[in-house]
Amino acid sequence: MPPYLAGRGQESSEFRRLLKQTTILENLVLTGLRGTGKTVLLETFKPIAIREEWYWIGTDLSESTSVSEENMALRLLTDLSVITAGIVVKTDKQLNIGFSIESKEVRRTLNFAALREIYNQTPGLVADKLKHVLETVWKYIQNVDRRGIVFAYDEAQTLSDHADDQQYPLSLLLDVFQSIQKKDIPFMLVLTGLPTLFPKLVEARTFAERMFHIMFLTHLKEPDSRDAIIKPTEQEKCPVKFGESSVNAIINISGGYPYFIQFICREVFDVWLQKLDIGEKPAVPMDEIIRKLDSDFFAGRWSRATDRQRELLSVAARLENSGEEFTVQEIVERSKQELKNPFSSSHANQMLSSLGNAGLIYKNRHGKYSFAVPLLDKFIIRQLEQNQ
Ligand SMILES: Nc1ncnc2c1ncn2[C@@H]1O[C@H](COP(=O)(O)OP(=O)(O)OP(=O)(O)O)[C@@H](O)[C@H]1O
Ligand SMILES: [Mg+2]
């Protein structure tokens, strides 16, 4: 967590609005490029939900969760059991006492083993079993003073179906939640991940389009960037205070992206402490920080691209709208002006798609492209200038 979470007030009130639902018509997708603050925002949603009397469960997802439908079911049962393990249910048990049989009321909790048992004993497909477990759990917890359960999953872009193995864990998740929400069971999905997440959901199930409210995190607005930089230094005994020009410099290099703000502030903070120690007047070491950012953050990603891919990325980085969205056509046109060996439409398309798989380019639902890493365009321009 950052020492001070700047901005994001609108997103938090949107989330509060979603928590007011009694019938869940809208679930949440929290998305954005790397380092825009999805995970830390999700963390702050948790206490909000709990204060509004919801249960909150969830974890980080990984590819292994969506290897099979069974794995997905296991994930949900495991997470669910964290809250249900405290719920005591009464069942009748037939006891053999010598030659006679006596019925005795036994108390047991809905721990993982109990959920698993309900699951195993339900006939049908994985979806049927899972729905039955969720319905049973709701039957017991609706008496507890909670409005419902938030299922919060980070890194949800790792989910996928596998037609080759006939395993559809992503579709399973969507089917199950749609079905129980239709039955008025207030279990809400909050999925967090990179911008590939929502298109993936819609590709698996078209109804996902209507099932989710999308929050797209981008850079912080200027006053919020300012807060993110200054507020942590306002704490008592903080030896470092940034002046106006330093703050502006940090906003400028970071582009307002939270990860970069934090990276740069840490660097500046450390350098300043050392300078103060030896009695020197500190300033923001711009060039050093940019060089460090380039080697720590961008270089690894850049090195994964082939020469020809770099050529295409460089064309894109030089477009006026490189920081926003661009089209294949724009790249093709520009490459004709700039390169001896320009890109054809189909070749550019193909390469953008492989750059998408490599996590460098992102294609939105309207067929437009953008850099999948914030400020990558500026890094590329710096590389080109250095090479020249
Ligand atoms: N609103 C904010 N104010 C101040 N700092 C923030 C804010 N949001 C995020 N940060 C800081 O920025 C960094 C990146 O945040 P976080 O890890 O949540 O991003 P993310 O979107 O989850 O990234 P990834 O896509 O890599 O998972 C963290 O160090 C975090 O502390
Ligand atoms: Mg994250």
Question: Could you please describe the fold and organization of this structure?
Answer:
The chain folds into three domains: 167 residues, Rossmann fold (3-Layer(aba) Sandwich); 63 residues; 82 residues, Orthogonal Bundle (Arc Repressor Mutant, subunit A). It is built from 16 helices and nine strands. Helix 3 runs parallel beside helix 5. The longest helix has 20 residues. The chain binds adenosine-5'-triphosphate and magnesium ion (MG). Magnesium ion binds next to helix 2.
Radius of gyration: 26 Å
Distance between the termini: 40 Å
Order of helices and strands: HEHEHEEHHEHEHHEHHHHHHHEEH
Task: Give a list of the ligands.
Answer: adenosine-5'-triphosphate, magnesium ion
CATH superfamily of the largest domain: P-loop containing nucleotide triphosphate hydrolases
Looking at the overall shape, the CATH architecture of the largest domain is 3-Layer(aba) Sandwich
Total separate domains: 3
Helix content: 40-55%
Helix-strand makeup class: alpha/beta
Poorly predicted segments? none
**Percent of residues in beta strands:** 15-25%
By CATH, the topology of the largest domain is Rossmann fold
Overall pLDDT level: 91
Principal-axis shape: globular
Q: What's the total count of β strands? A: 9
Q: Biggest sheet: strands, sense, closure?
A: 5 strands, parallel
